[in-house]
Amino acid sequence: MLPPTFLRSALLASCLISLPLTGIGQEQRAPKPTFSDRETQGVFFGSLDEAFRDSRPTLATIRKASVAAVAAASAEPASGDGEGDQATGAAGWAKLITPISIEDEIKRVKLHYDGVISTPGAFNGGGYVEARTDLSILATLFAIINDYSGDVRWKDQAAAARDLIARTAFNCKAGSAQVYNEAKLRKADLQDLVAGSGLASRDAEPENDWSMIVDRVPLMTYAELLQDKLKQASRDKKSTQENADAIRRNAQLLAVIGKVLTQEGLDDSEDDDYVTLSNQMSNAATAIVNAIDSNNFEIGAQVGAVTQSCDACHEQYR
């Protein structure tokens, strides 16, 4: 039998434990308040439209605000502000990219293109898409060589190479035996150029007609590729320093693509917002080149500006 003192202590403890629970069980919430329309008048808007001055914002106005934000955050223009720079004539290209960067990229794309043009089955099964992108890049680079102010390899054949390659690029919108055979001829032409024997036919228009050289879609695909390469190569200061040459070349190429996208004859080249975004991408890419040339390997802000302008452009003009 338990001692009386223990029983009294246990009884007292059980009473103390039950007191808060009883209080909680008896607790009641305050009733829900009610308000009349007269009491809330002037505090809340009657409808969403009343909350905005002038007109309610639309998706188009939001996009324009995004364009303005990108323009304000981007780097300073790399070249002058004259009409010649806006049109990117012969002198303009030389300010954006070096001859060695053009030559190295032509060789790189040519090697990739060699692998794409392997068999008719692979080409017709989707290889024609890669072929179109490669040929579009090459046609663009040869057009730049044709208009370049300084000495660049293949300049005497650039116009002919531009026209041959651009024509096949346009035809590579679909796969077929005929297009594959034409693509094989361009593979042989590129081999002749790189090897130094030159093209068999050199007849071409002397001036660049950008509407006949390249489409916007493969250029945007290429810009995305260059942007990804920049981000991967510049993860930190050490990576940037180790990959400085590749970063410089890819930034120069991205600066060039930004200017090409605004050339007369290409889609939306007369759209002010589109031109602003393209120029901001080009300027931000050139800021990367300037940083590398100054041995500044902390380029996160510049790469971020490139990404911001690219993303804003793809949102609206893909």
Automatic annotation (TrEMBL):
This is Cytochrome C. InterPro entries: Cyt_c/b562, Cyt_c_II. It comes from Novipirellula galeiformis. GO terms for molecular function: electron transfer activity; heme binding; iron ion binding. SUPFAM superfamilies: Cytochromes (SSF47175). Keywords: Coiled coil. Residues 223-250 form a coiled coil. The keyword Ligase does not apply. One of its GO terms (biological process) is electron transport chain.
